[in-house]
Design brief:
Order of helices and strands of chain B: EEEEEHEHEEEE
Mean pLDDT of chain B: 89
Radius of gyration of chain A: 17 Å
Shape of chain A: globular
Helix content of chain B: 10-25%
Radius of gyration of chain B: 15 Å
Largest sheet of chain B: 5 strands, mixed
Shape of chain B: globular
Number of strands of chain A: 8
Oligomer: heterodimer
Strand content of chain B: 35-45%
Order of helices and strands of chain A: HHEEHEEHHEEHEEH
Low-confidence stretches of chain A: none
Structural class of chain A: alpha+beta
Largest interface: A-B, 40 and 40 residues
Number of helices of chain A: 7
Number of strands of chain B: 10
Mean pLDDT of chain A: 79
Strand order of the largest sheet of chain B: 1-3-8-9-10
Number of helices of chain B: 2
Distance between the termini of chain A: 20 Å
């Protein structure tokens, strides 16, 4: 039986590149969908894949204490895993305003804001997942996305539960969406981050579906 | 002159021990449970931020022991005794174990919060360590800070402010 180090040692530069490409394709599709929805140009940050310890996962999202709005979904099927779309609360409100064309404070209509966010979550995670399925030819279904506003640590730790049974480190597949227009200054700036955490056995399935061996 | 205390930060799946006037804190507990064991007389406290109910769940050997309720409590106990605490005086305060997301899933891991709480309580009971206060379950994340001089556990939740147990 191998120990936890061996699990992470199965990932060389080639494997990390494959994972980066998956993040790239997933968020690329999501950016396109978002761009259509908001009728705005949305761009994608250069995607990153890093092997880090659990605390550093939280740091990559702004720190365990930081309050964020997240869209969470479990992927089920041939390569199960967990996906998050995370944004600062101010951004979430901004997304909702753009979607609903409501200019007043959304605190007044929490139900409408929540349903708009749910819809945003559906669209983004659906686009991400469809791209993953097309690229890997794996059969994946998603649960209905769940929205919550809470601390980064409380939210992202759900993505580490499966992994924590085989490793003390995580592979973070993080991609970011930004407003491509660059208009309107700071207030108008859009930003959100995708985090993908495949369950440990899913890595092998993803790699082999793409013709890459885990220990290359 | 009063000595200014420092704050020891405990990461996810980690543990540590402090002596008054220092404080001990962990951030962003969701389904994880923050376990505090303390000796009021010696003003000593240990904290663990556990993620999983038992080490036997691990599918590989050699992982961090502070990640699991059972091994974390074992190590906290040993560490506190080593620092001069009396095991018969040790008491516990607990926070965390939330269910952050609600939906049906075939995945048992979605229920990990309540399972963590159960495991922590079972292990403390078998060691005869009384639980003096707890703030468990619910749907909110928590950041907690323990003050060994007063045995107060400060709990912060998003939108709900701070409480002390």
């Amino acid at each position: 039986m191998s120990n936890s180090k061996d699990f992470m040692e199965g990932f060389g530069p080639l494997q990390l590149d494959v994972l980066k490409e998956i993040g790239n394709i997933g968020s690329g599709h999501a950016a396109t969908s978002l761009s259509k929805l908001l009728q705005k140009k949305i761009e994608m940050h250069v995607p990153g894949v890093e092997v880090v310890d659990f605390d550093q996962v939280m740091e990559l999202a702004g720190g365990a204490d930081k309050e964020v709005v997240s869209v969470f979904q479990r992927m089920e099927g041939e390569a199960p895993g967990t996906m998050f779309f995370i944004m600062p609360p101010s951004q979430a409100h901004h997304f909702v305003k753009l979607m609903t064309n409501v200019s007043e404070d959304l605190e007044d209509d929490a139900e409408m804001a929540m349903s708009a966010l749910q819809e945003l979550g559906n669209i983004l995670s659906g686009a991400y997942l469809t791209a993953l399925c097309d690229f890997t030819e794996l059969d994946l279904q998603s649960t209905v996305p769940s929205i919550s506003q809470d601390m980064v640590g409380a939210i992202l730790s759900m993505g580490l539960i499966e992994l924590s049974q085989v490793s003390d480190a995580a592979i973070v597949i993080k991609t970011s969406l930004i407003d491509g227009d660059g208009e309107g200054g700071e207030d108008e700036f859009l930003e959100g981050h995708f985090f993908l955490f495949p369950d440990p056995p899913s890595y092998q399935k993803i790699f082999s579906s793409l013709g890459v061996r885990e220990d290359d | 002159m009063i000595k200014e205390g420092q704050v020891l930060r405990i990461g996810i799946g980690d543990m540590g021990i402090v002596h008054s006037p220092d404080l001990i804190r962990t951030s962003g507990l969701g389904s994880c449970v923050g376990i505090v064991l303390y000796d009021e007389v010696k003003k000593l406290a240990g904290m663990a931020h556990i993620m999983l109910p038992e080490a036997a769940l691990a599918k590989k050997q050699g992982l961090k022991r502070a990640k699991y309720a059972d091994t974390a409590i074992e190590d906290l106990l040993a560490g506190l005794k080593g620092a001069g605490a009396s095991s018969y005086r040790l008491k516990a305060k607990l926070a965390g174990g939330a269910q952050m997301f609600q939906f049906t899933s075939s995945n048992d891991m979605m229920r990990i919060g309540p399972r963590n709480v159960e495991a922590v309580k079972k292990n403390l009971q078998s060691l005869h360590i009384p639980i003096l206060a707890e703030d468990l379950g619910g749907r909110s994340g928590r950041t907690i800070e323990f003050h060994p001089d007063t045995a107060e556990l400060h709990i912060r939740k998003v939108n709900q402010g701070e409480s002390v147990i």
